[in-house]
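$ run holo --ligand "S-adenosylmethionine" --emit tokens
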Amino acid sequence: MLHPTCGPAGEHHVENLFSSIASRYDLINSVLSLGRHKDWRRFAVSLIGPSQGDRALDVCCGTGDFAIELARAVGWQGAVKAIDCSEPMLEIARRKAEQAGLSQIEFIKGDARCLPFADNTFDCAVVGFGLRNIPNFDEAIAEMKRVVRPGGKVLSLEIFGLRGHWCSALWKLYFGTIGPILARILGGNTEAYRYLPQSVEYFATAEQMAREFAAQGLVDVQYRKLALGAVCIHVGTKPLGKTASTSIRLVNRTERTWRDERKRIER
Ligand SMILES: C[S@@+](CC[C@H](N)C(=O)[O-])C[C@H]1O[C@@H](n2cnc3c(N)ncnc32)[C@H](O)[C@@H]1O
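-- output --
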């Protein structure tokens, strides 16, 4: 079956879709994630722990929330580049960064599969809810790996849904039916929010994504499931040498790790 991005407008389908919902994206994101999306990004950034002065990249940056988290972590001496294919999303991101006084972020229009940066430029690269929208997302992971330095981190935060989970029927009802209705009420494009559950359904599983990170040559691949497993964070490291062997590990969340995670978020 075709990936839902393979519409009549071809390559520009996703770009047009996100451009059409740009002004409502943040509000609808907050409602659909039940207010959790900012915590997920903050937690994700804490997992790769950028230092003051680091250079960080946000791929598929949308309205810039991940880039803003990264900019806070790398501070004034650091630099953040953020790339997206939708100019209306980028315009909102630029406005938000300016309002937050974060001039160390540069927002650039471009394609995640062909990043306009030299090899080994960044200390880390993140992508938030982006890979699912790219039919050949392996190319985007390869590009992220290419532009981070050896020892640098590549991270993806993504929705995987609840396939085969005891509450998958509830998930389908929420994302397949209630989501598009809520999006319409909030002034979004219903069509675009029908795309959301489709893009999740046609996408890889969290386990396949972990294997793809390893297949692209990232080592020490770890993934964590959030929101009952509907959302997942994958982290891999660019090896220091050519011969490094990889490992894939699902980091289980216990009550204790959850408390630790909360502390990190609230820091
Ligand atoms: C669901 S939004 C996520 C935005 C943001 N990262 C966040 O965390 O909220 C997906 C973004 O990916 C962008 N996108 C999709 N395909 C892309 C590609 N091939 N290259 C660059 N950006 C892309 C879209 O324009 C959209 O802004």
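-- notes --
The first strand starts at residue 55 and ends at 59.
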